[in-house]
Amino acid sequence: MANKSIVPPDNSNYRYGQETALKLAGEKLASISIEEQCRKAGAAYNLAASGETATLNYLGRPYLISFPEMKVVSIEDKQPAAERERLLMLHYILNANGSPLTGNMITYKEIPGGTAYFPTFHKRTIKPLLDNFSADAQKLLVAAETVGGVRADCGDVAVSINAFSRIPLTLVLWYGDDEFPAAGSILLDSSITGYLAAEDITVLCEIITWKLVKAGGALKN
Predict the structure, then answer these.
(1) Which residues contact 162 (CB under 8 A, 6 or more apart)?
(2) Does any domain span residue 4?
(3) Per-residue confidence of the chain (221 residues) as pLDDT tens digits?
(4) In degrees to the nearest 10, what's the CA dihedral of 173, 179, 181, 186?
(5) How far is residue 63's CA from residue 75's CA, in Å, rounded to a whole number?
(6) What's the pTM?
(7) Do 201 and 88 touch, CB atoms closer than 8 A?
(8) Which domain covers residue 142, as residue numbers?
(9) Which of 201, 11, 210 is nearest to 88 (CA)?
(10) Whose CA is closest to 55, among 165, 190, 217?
(11) Gyration radius of the chain's alpha carbons
(12) Do 133 and 198 reside in the same domain of the chain?
């Protein structure tokens, strides 16, 4: 019999593919106050003759979101955001409830649905970090700078990254030895559940992981 205490992750945002997910997000955004959601998300709202816009900081860079078109463009280089990142930013605006940071750091297993979905989360996020940085964890510090990350006082090596203004996370590595293998974790402020669903959190952490892996691979030994 299924364990009723385990809440399955909310995959509805991605279940039907990104095109449908974007359509659903647009319909929901059209029915609410964009100005109010920007306030809750810590984004700058602007109303002009051409429509509503939001300026949102994502991984250390500002993006301009235009409504109702839902266009998401980097302010720095004017390039459109990748589709998964575009959807993630829209979900962040859409779901934000304005919860303040608690300072209480939790693991993915502790969010609703996290226990059931953790093996997939680990495979898509923590394992690539270990595969690429456990042999040279100091590279993680340099790679994190490319997404606005700074060193954190956790584990053997850790970095804190502000994914959004109200979503900080900390990536932690512990060195392995003859007795124990290297280990890793991603810590989240417990308020994250007021901004993103479990699947969104997985996508966010996966995007950050592979940005770091790519940056780390470009670093000279």
Answers:
(1) 57, 59, 60, 148, 168
(2) no
(3) 333 333 333 444 455 577 788 888 989 999 999 999 999 999 999 998 889 999 999 999 999 999 999 999 999 999 999 999 999 999 999 999 999 999 999 999 999 989 999 999 999 999 999 999 998 888 999 999 999 999 999 999 999 999 999 999 999 999 888 888 999 999 999 999 999 999 999 999 999 999 999 998 766 55
(4) -40
(5) 5
(6) 0.89
(7) no
(8) 105-218
(9) 201
(10) 165
(11) 18
(12) yes
Structure tokens at 116: 């059931």
Give yes or no: residues 44 and 91 share one domain: yes
Residues 123 and 208 in one domain: yes
User: Interhelix angle for 198-218 vs 83-95, to 10°?
Assistant: 140
Q: Are residues 150 and 187 in the same domain?
A: yes
Residue at 136 is within a domain: yes
SS3 readout for 86-99: HHHHHHHHHHCCCC
The dihedral over CA atoms of 43, 30, 206, 168, expressed in degrees to the nearest 10, equals 30
d(C-alpha 128, C-alpha 181), whole Å: 15
What Å distances lie between residue 198 and 11, 59, 168, CA to CA?
8, 19, 15
